[in-house]
Amino acid sequence: MKIVSRNEELLREALSCIPQPSSRASLASCNKLIRFEDISAAAFKIQCGVQKTPCMYSRLSKQYGMEIYLKKEFLQYTGSVKERGVLYLLMSLPQEQQRKGVIVASDSNFSMAVAHHAAELGVPVFVIVPSTTAPARVRTCRDYGAMVLSYGATAKDAQLHARRLAQENGYLYLEEEDSAVYLSGLGTVGLEMYEQVPKLDAVIFPAGGHCGLLAGSAAALKHLNPQISVIGVESESFPVLQQSLKAGHPTDDQACNNHHFYGDVSGVCFGSNSLQLTGKLVDKVVAVREEDILIAMLRLLEYERATVDAEGAIGLAALVAGKLPELRGKRVAVVICSGNLELHLLQQCIARALTLDNRVCRFSLVISDCPGDMSKLLEILAREEVRVLDIKQERTFVTSELFTVQVICTVETRDKIHTAQLRNALLERYPTTAWTER
Predict the structure, then answer these.
(1) Are 306 and 336 in contact (CB under 8 A)?
(2) pTM for the whole thing?
């Protein structure tokens, strides 16, 4: 957590353990920065302000050959695990600063957590967002109790404006970083999972640039049982953590664009402290494709009735993609950390995931332009028990024989095997059937 204000002397006592982002702490100082006692203290202090979310056995276990337990952090009030670190930080601020207020500049899960918990604690809170922010996010922050202001066309414009307001009015400017206070709050997830699921073999966390949850929880889990394997998962499109670990310091990946689909997993690596904790305590970091994330979102919706975003589904995506074969037969916990997916993205993600899962397919064929031929095609589809989603007929631009019609049909099937059965049945009756590849 980066703290910026003109009243830093007020914070020095409460947050003296927070290093400057540019400092390069050694592993020894990193161990002093966050201890198990810090995480335990955070758990005690925030227990009345955040949910102790369930860590439940999943029906997906049989499908992937292991005991899977899902830590459902998306059930927090703001739909994100970030509440844990945010609440602990806000409760640690001096009373004078709580009275003056705090300010953030983004539309992220972090900002929504600050908006909610600052309002609950009676701390004046201001959220500055660029004009491109989705109206639903603006409305949500206002509903939580924050004063939301739109400024500038980019996130950088909003951040500069927020810093200026903080300097002029004595607000505390908060930006997500990797201080001991923030990491200790996030680390309470690992503490809870250890208590909720006995004899854990491995725990899977989302990683990416913002790896505070991974680092803080690893500190708790490795203290309680060094034999538990701690695994981070990031996107192949933004392998920020793997690049940073390889370089030995936080790197700025130029490919990072903070696309709303990816959320925090596409951000730049934000701190050397989280990075050093990750390098010391995390056993493995793997990367998954976008296709795997989408299918994981679909599995969670179908099997768990859980609507999550990419950051929430990325841990399960490692199992979907078969990236962790060594965990077969083991007891594994997966953190589902976020469920803040915008509605228009949800619709696109589910439609795309069904196609990737070979459950929505499209084909075209040419039949005689007679009522009887169309009914025969529909009879085949009914016999194969597929659901017709869309059917179109093209007569004008058909290049085959006269008095024929091209039929373009989109159907939904049960699974990949059902799709193959349909394909064979159509090819048997219509040898020229063309399938649209996904």
Answers:
(1) yes
(2) 0.86
Other C-beta atoms within 10 Å of 415: how many?
10
Domains in the chain, CATH or no CATH each? 36-80+180-353 (3.40.50.1100), 86-174 (3.40.50.1100), 358-436 (3.30.70.260)
Residue 14 is predicted with a pLDDT of 34
For the chain, 438 residues long, the average pLDDT of each consecutive 10-residue run is 39 36 34 81 96 97 97 97 97 95 92 96 96 91 96 92 95 90 96 97 90 94 97 91 87 59 66 87 96 96 95 96 97 96 90 93 92 92 95 83 89 94 94 86
